[in-house]
């Protein structure tokens, strides 16, 4: 048994595009000394882009499509940061990534407040009671009143809030931030070129030293605000935070590196270590896996292929849930019941990959494989164990795949299966005819598929509108499903695991079929087994 996992902090940053997630990621790495110079995260991203054409979509549209993991250490803790695509068309991917974290930082733009994507991602976190730390970014720019922003978070998200770090002026009057718990003022570095904040300890907000450091007029205003804030909001309560009902709030500037070290310090102090994970045993019995359990277990929340097209690699990202994993261990994939010798597992560091010798609950391990692992798979020493909560979502956009060069049909099928295994799209083979269909949740994924087919698999294909607008998995007794399938053969297809689905021309038609066939369940989500 190991309690090493106690110092793991596995978290994600959730935000609306442009709120500053990338900048904050970079500055967190800088604060932890995982990288030395600001700009390295981007520079690395650009080198990668140069390798892979499909990533040009990221550039063109200014969004981040890939989900990546990064491990770094700070003050005795090991942090595993999972990046989530901000664009709503990749929400499936994000949803699954959030099943692999124990806490999240929510980045809010001080000029904009809660935006639609922040809200959606927050709701996903709430479903799993993931504790949230709020970072209100860009206070160095003209923004909204701090009370206004806090009230919005409290009202719209129905959370208690505890201000932890307060801004001293905003926009043109921005002077720094004040750490209310430690009575410390965060000021611009004397050497601005370094961009680091420096902190000065004071006795309280009333310390006269602050007038000299900041200026009496601004300080007087801020004293009043902080007094109101301290009186008006709940004191910090660790349990309420870990239950997901209270969020500590940090005002800061990722770009100018204000409040970044404080944020990281408090993720270390407050964010929970790995907890229990819901799972199912062979006889369909529900259980939960304790990180203390001796058997090794983990699940795949993401598969990324061709990160380096020169090597045709395919990496499954596994969140470890229990036991002490050791390199070369043999683990069973529950879905296929096949053993997998994990010879070359890797940790993703900020600028490097490192061979994993040992890993514990909370760790994110990359496992190179040739198709043995798909999103949702459980890897374990315990027979029949399957982690829950990684569903497939019924696609809302369905296209017929039409090959430009019919000679390449085999290649195409292989490519489509590989893409589907990454979890961003699904493929369906109709009972009748030779076509096949691809289904996605967001339309941007169609562009990604087209570009990746060309760039990585050298296949040109068109994805044509086909008249179907909804997919439902069928569930029920074998005979009821068979009867429905016989009567509706031209609207039946199979997913890549061979399960039958109903293709409907509209959401309405799907609902109608459901009404007319009470013995069959029409499912919008499906847990993989
Ligand atoms: P994202 O990953 O959430 O989409 O956001 P990203 O970090 O790319 O930041 C979006 C824009 O906001 C960037 O400007 C970035 O420099 C800026 N930004 C981030 N944090 C702060 C901050 O604390 N203060 C200020 N003033 N700006 C901030 P950009 O012009 O779109 O890109 P770039 O050319 O600067 O890279």
Tell me what you see in this structure:
By secondary structure, the protein is an alpha+beta fold. The protein is built from 14 helices and 33 strands. The strands form 7 sheets. The protein has a 10-stranded mixed β-sheet, sandwiched between helices. An 8-stranded antiparallel β-sheet has the order 28-25-27-26-30-31-29-32. Strands 17-16-22-13-14-21 form a 6-stranded antiparallel β-sheet. The longest helix has 17 residues, at 216-232. The relative contact order is 0.12. Mean pLDDT is 87; it is low at 43-67. The structure holds guanosine-5',3'-tetraphosphate (G4P). The site of guanosine-5',3'-tetraphosphate (G4P) has 17 residues, from α1. Residues 15, 17-23, 86, 137-138, 140-141, 253-256 line the site of guanosine-5',3'-tetraphosphate.
Overall strand count: 33
Head-to-tail CA distance between termini = 28 Å
Over all CA atoms, what is the radius of gyration? 25 Å
Stretches where pLDDT is under 50 for at least 5 consecutive residues are 43-67
Structural class: alpha+beta
- Secondary structure: helix percent: 25-40%
| Small molecules in complex | guanosine-5',3'-tetraphosphate
* Relative strand content: 25-35%
Overall geometric form:
elongated
Q: Order of strands in the sheet with the most strands?
A: 2-3-1-4-5-10-6-7-8-9
Mean pLDDT: 87
Largest sheet: 10 strands, mixed
Helices, by number, come to 14
């Amino acid at each position: 048994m190991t309690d090493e996992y106690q110092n793991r902090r596995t978290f994600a940053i959730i935000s609306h595009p442009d709120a500053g997630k990338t900048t904050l990621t970079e500055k967190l790495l800088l604060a932890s000394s995982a990288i030395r110079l600001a700009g390295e995260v981007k520079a690395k991203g650009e080198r990668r882009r140069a390798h892979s054409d499909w990533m040009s979509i990221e550039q063109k549209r200014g969004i981040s499509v890939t989900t990546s993991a990064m491990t770094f250490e700070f003050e005795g803790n090991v942090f595993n940061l999972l990046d989530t695509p901000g664009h709503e068309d990749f929400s499936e991917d994000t949803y699954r990534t959030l099943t692999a974290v124990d806490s999240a930082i929510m980045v809010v733009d001080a000029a904009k407040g809660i935006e639609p994507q922040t809200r959606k991602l927050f709701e996903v976190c709430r479903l799993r009671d993931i504790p949230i730390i709020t970072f209100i970014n860009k206070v160095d720019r003209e923004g909204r009143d701090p009370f206004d922003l806090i009230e919005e978070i409290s009202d719209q998200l129905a959370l208690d809030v505890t201000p932890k770090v307060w801004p001293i002026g905003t926009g043109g009057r921005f002077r720094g931030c004040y750490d209310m718990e430690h009575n410390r003022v965060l000021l611009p570095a004397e050497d601005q070129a370094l961009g680091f904040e420096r902190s000065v300890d004071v006795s309280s907000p009333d310390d006269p030293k602050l007038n000299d450091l900041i200026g009496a007029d601004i300080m007087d205003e801020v004293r009043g605000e902080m007094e109101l804030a301290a009186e008006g909001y709940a004191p910090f309560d660790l349990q309420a935070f870990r239950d997901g009902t209270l969020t500590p709030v940090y005002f800061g500037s990722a770009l100018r590196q204000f409040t970044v070290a404080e944020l990281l310090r408090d993720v270390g102090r407050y964010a929970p270590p790995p907890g229990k994970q819901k799972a199912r045993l062979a006889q369909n019995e529900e259980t939960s896996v304790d990180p203390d359990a001796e058997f090794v277990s983990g699940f795949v929340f993401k598969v990324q292929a061709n990160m380096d097209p020169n090597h045709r690699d395919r990496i499954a990202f596994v969140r470890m849930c229990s036991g002490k994993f050791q390199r070369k261990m043999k683990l069973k994939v529950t879905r296929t019941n096949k053993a997998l010798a994990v010879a070359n597992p890797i940790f993703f560091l900020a600028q490097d990959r490192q061979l994993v010798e040992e890993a514990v609950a909370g760790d994110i391990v990359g496992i190179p494989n040739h198709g043995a692992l798909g999103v949702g798979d459980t890897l374990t020493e315990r027979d029949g164990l399957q982690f829950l909560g990684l569903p497939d979502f019924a696609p809302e956009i369905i296209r017929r795949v039409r090959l430009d060069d019919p000679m390449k049909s085999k290649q195409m099928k292989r490519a489509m299966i590989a893409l589907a295994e990454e979890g961003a799209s699904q493929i369906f083979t109709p009972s009748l005819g030779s076509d096949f269909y691809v289904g996605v949740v967001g339309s941007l994924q169609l562009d990604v598929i087209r570009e990746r087919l060309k760039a990585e698999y050298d296949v040109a294909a068109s994805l044509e509108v086909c008249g179907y607008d909804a997919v439902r998995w069928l569930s029920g007794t074998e005979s009821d499903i068979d009867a429905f399938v016989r009567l509706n053969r031209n609207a039946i297809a199979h997913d890549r695991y061979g399960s039958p689905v109903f293709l409907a021309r509209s959401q309405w038609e799907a609902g109608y079929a459901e009404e007319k066939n009470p013995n069959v369940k029409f499912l919008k989500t499906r847990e993989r087994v």
